[in-house]
């Protein structure tokens, strides 16, 4: 990923980690989601772990140890906080706001986001026995994902920017959602602009090539005297093409006060005459009537 994309991902993590759930049940759910963090040294995640642990201590709830069951671990030997190996969370009985807090914790602890090459790819790397359940939990919010085993761990993934936007809306990443949508709009506008430019460039190249052929045909007809023998409209159109080589059929028609079809037919006649060398080329054959 580029530096701006990496900065966006880090800013998104910082925004999610800075959320302070007002409900005690949501804090407990997020604590459970943070359990077993693969990369506890991330600053945003580490600060969140410390903040939640301090809230638990302030409320008089005993914090678990590193070998404890649910909850957060205390500081490690190196002085940095880490999550406990696993945390119990009853998804089936939890309220929707608690489920959202739990998923936010799971993303901060086990999730990663990639925006390389304009594609959105999010994945959770969890235990092999948790991947299927996490897919089911995400699906209940309309965040349908797939999972597979990779080196003995379960990898839950989705590659849809719309799904990522729904997830950010669910877990409270408002600023990241706006930035992601702005990136999508900008990418869409650039794509549309490139298509329009390519189409206009192709049309211009075709117009330039056609004008060059027509001017060459006009010169050839004038050189052998056949241009002067052509109908008035053909001669007028030929002179108009000389005066404005870059003009389109519509622009020539407006300048000469003719119908566009008349201009097109006149130029097509000039090209046919120069190519085949006979006035009868392209003319409708005479009709023979039987007595």
Task: Write a structural description.
This protein has 291 residues and is α+β, with helices and mostly antiparallel strands. It has 2 domains: 3-172, Roll (Endonuclease I-creI), CATH 3.10.28; 197-276, no CATH class. Helices cover 56% and strands 10% of the residues. The chain contains 10 helices and 6 strands, in the order αααββαββαββααααα. It has helices at residues 3-17, 24-33, 43-58, 96-110, 131-139, 161-171, 174-223, 232-243, 249-256, 260-276, and strands at residues 72-75, 81-83, 111-114, 121-127, 146-150, 153-158. The strands form 2 sheets. A 4-stranded antiparallel sheet has the order 3-4-6-5. A two-stranded antiparallel ribbon has the order 1-2. Strand 5 (146-150) and strand 6 (153-158) form a beta hairpin. Helix 7 (174-223) packs across helix 10. The chain is rod-shaped and about 105 Å long. The model is unreliable at 62-86 and 280-291 (pLDDT under 50).
Using DSSP, what is the number of strands? 6
Note the total helix count.
Answer: 10
Strand content: 5-15%
Number of domains: 2
Cα-atom radius of gyration: 36 Å
Ends distance: 84 Å
Reported by name, the CATH topology of the largest domain is Endonuclease I-creI
Mean pLDDT: 78
Strand order of the largest sheet: 3-4-6-5
Give a quick set of tags describing it.
291 residues; Endonuclease I-creI; 2 domains; 10 helices; disordered C terminus
Give a summary of the structure in a few sentences.
Helices cover 56% and strands 10% of the residues.
């Amino acid at each position: 990923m580029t530096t701006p994309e990496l900065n966006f991902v880090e800013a998104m993590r910082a925004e999610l980690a800075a959320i302070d759930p007002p409900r005690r049940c949501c804090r407990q759910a997020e604590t459970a989601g943070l359990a077993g963090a693969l990369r506890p040294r991330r600053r945003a995640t580490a600060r969140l772990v410390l903040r939640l642990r301090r809230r638990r201590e302030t409320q008089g709830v005993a914090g678990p140890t590193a070998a404890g069951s649910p909850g957060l671990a205390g500081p490690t030997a190196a002085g940095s906080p880490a999550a406990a190996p696993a945390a119990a969370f009853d998804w089936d009985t939890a309220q929707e706001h608690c489920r959202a807090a739990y998923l936010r914790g799971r993303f901060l602890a086990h999730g990663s986001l990639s925006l390389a090459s304009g594609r959105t790819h999010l994945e959770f790397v969890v235990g092999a026995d948790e991947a299927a359940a996490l897919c089911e939990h995400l699906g209940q919010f309309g965040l349908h994902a797939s999972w597979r085993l990779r080196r003995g761990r379960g990898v839950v993934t989705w590659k849809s920017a719309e799904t990522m936007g729904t997830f950010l809306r669910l877990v409270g990443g408002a600023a990241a959602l706006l930035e992601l949508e702005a990136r999508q709009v900008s990418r869409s506008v650039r794509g549309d602009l490139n298509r329009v430019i390519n189409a206009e460039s192709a049309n211009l190249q075709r117009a330039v090539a056609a004008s060059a052929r027509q001017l060459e045909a006009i010169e050839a007809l004038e050189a052998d005297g056949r241009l002067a023998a052509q109908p008035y409209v053909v001669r007028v159109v030929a002179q108009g093409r000389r005066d404005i080589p870059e003009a389109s059929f519509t622009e020539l028609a407006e300048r000469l006060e003719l119908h566009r079809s008349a201009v097109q037919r006149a130029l097509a006649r000039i090209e046919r005459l120069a190519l085949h060398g006979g006035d009868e080329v392209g003319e409708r054959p005479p009709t023979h009537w039987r007595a």
